[in-house]
Design goal:
The protein is of the alpha/beta class. The protein has one domain: Alkaline Phosphatase, subunit A, CATH 3.40.720.10. The protein has helices at residues 34-46, 68-72, 103-106, 125-134, 152-160, 199-202, 215-223, 240-249, 252-256, 264-270, 277-289, 312-336, 402-413, and strands at 56-61, 88-89, 98-99, 112-115, 172-174, 193-194, 294-298, 343-348, 352-353, 365-366, 372-376, 383-385, 420-422, 428-430. The strands form four sheets. It has an eight-stranded mixed β-sheet, sandwiched between helices. The termini are far apart. Residues 1-9, 17-32, 199-213 and 222-237 have low confidence and may be disordered.
């Protein structure tokens, strides 16, 4: 059986889980999508046009809003009520300190960049998430309103096509649910391929592949469209691109999701952190290696997620070590496979936390300064980008906004910064907000 699944994300302080409302992806209700993509790319090749799709993004979302201080800006010289309550970890790059619960990650500092002037000012869960996930501010998100802009992953799927040409792997994969990670006006065809949550009902291909003698039977199950099965199982009448699509779906695209094909020792190493984050990071690497362009996963491992309004030190000691281990293992793995320049790892959340520890030993919402770290992607690593004020309250250096992160991702994925697509009203819309530019220290 081909059965793709994931885990459920914790709830934040507002009692809501990240919405999983855009759930039809590359194998959605309107069809495989791959045959039409193959036709388009064949036509592009015939016309001398080409697509670039050998880079990827793995997006680790710290849902709830991780503290910027205890993660990547420890400020140990600040007064005790402001500094990191878990100390700092010295790295293999002089002057580049990590939070004290990230000692393994710190030993890969030469492969990472810590951004300490990342800001947007929206301290609401929904609004902050929308801002970081799309590059656009949308305060009504905190009132439960739907997103108004497409996410980075959906943009990648729209530009590159739903599936990778050589492997059939979906361009955009969601390992567990997030708010504002969908396609908006780009259309549901560019929603993430969701391996968890509603994917059990909408995305699973429940068919015994060993007994599949008729590829049209698979297409019927995937598309939810009644199709007449050829009695003899002949596929000679199928369009050549549908035939190619079937071969891809039955081949490497399926295999990319199968972790049992990995060396058990490597899988054990990923999972030594004690949570399913190891498997998710290993799956993300496999998908990117097979041609996936954008993978999102939402990690939290404490009773408040990363929304640590109280007892932050205790919760960090639960949440941080598995993240530290999984990221370090991932960076070592992609480095050994020669993929460091091809895969950009992004670690962020909807906002940071208040600089001063509150009366119940926690930190509250803080949009004026946010958490952001990156690794790989052909960018300039081994540095701290930007600087915060002495108590980690605000950017001291030039602020870096979500639009700049968005432009940096466009740079890595080879997406034209002037790209436009028509919205639902028929009007062309630029994908990048005004003033967006790649983070100059990184490119």
């Amino acid at each position: 059986m081909l059965n793709l699944f994931g885990s459920v994300s914790p709830r934040d302080c507002e009692g809501t889980s990240r919405r999983d409302f855009l759930r039809v992806g590359a194998l959605g209700m309107t069809g495989l999508g791959l045959p039409s993509l193959l036709r388009q790319r064949a036509q592009a090749a015939a016309e001398g046009r080409a697509t670039t799709d050998d880079t990827s993004v793995v997006w680790i979302w710290l849902g709830g809003g991780a503290t910027h201080i205890e993660t990547f800006d420890p400020k140990m010289e600040a007064p005790v009520e402001f500094r990191s309550c878990v100390g700092e970890a010295k790295s293999n790059v002089p002057g580049m300190e990590f939070g004290g619960l990230f000692p393994k990650m710190a030993q890969f500092a030469d492969r990472m960049a810590l951004v300490r002037s990342f800001t947007h000012g929206n301290s609401g869960h929904g609004g902050g998430t929308h801002y970081v996930m799309t590059g656009y501010d949308h305060p009504p998100a905190d009132l439960g309103l739907a997103p108004i802009k497409p996410s980075f992953g959906s943009i990648a799927a729209r530009v590159r096509g739903n599936n990778h040409l050589a492997s059939g792997v979906p361009t955009y994969v969601r390992l567990n649910g997030l708010y504002a990670d969908g396609p908006n006006f780009l259309g549901t065809a560019y929603s993430p391929f969701d391996v968890g949550g509603e994917a059990r009902n909408n995305m699973n291909v429940s068919v015994d592949l060993s007994r599949l003698g008729d590829r049209r039977g698979l297409l019927g199950q995937v598309d939810r469209i009644s199709r007449k099965v050829d009695r003899g199982g002949q596929i000679a009448g199928l369009d050549q691109f549908e035939t190619q699509a079937f071969d891809l779906i039955l081949g490497r695209a399926k295999e990319a999701f199968d972790l049992t094909r990995e060396d058990p020792r490597l899988r054990d190493k990923y999972n030594a952190g004690g949570t399913n984050l190891g498997d998710q990071m290993l799956l993300a690497r496999r998908l990117c290696e097979a041609g996936c362009g954008f993978v999102t996963l939402n990690y939290a491992n404490s009773y408040q997620g990363w929304d640590m309004h109280e007892k932050i030190e205790m919760q960090l000691k639960t949440a941080c070590p598995p993240l530290d281990h999984a990221v370090a293992t991932f960076l070592e793995d992609v480095g050994q496979r020669g993929l460091s320049e091809k895969i950009l790892l992004v670690i962020t959340g909807e906002f940071g936390r208040t600089p001063r520890i509150n009366g119940v030993a926690g930190r509250d919402h803080w949009g004026p300064l946010c958490t952001l770290a990156l690794a790989g992607g052909g960018l300039k690593m081994g540095q701290v980008v930007g600087e915060s004020t002495s108590k980690a309250e605000l950017p001291k250096s030039t602020p870096i906004y979500p639009r700049d992160l968005m432009a940096t991702i466009f740079h890595v994925l080879g997406i034209d910064r002037a790209s436009q697509f028509v919205d639902l009203s028929g009007r062309p819309q630029y994908l990048l907000p005004d003033g967006a530019a790649p983070i100059r220290e990184l490119v």
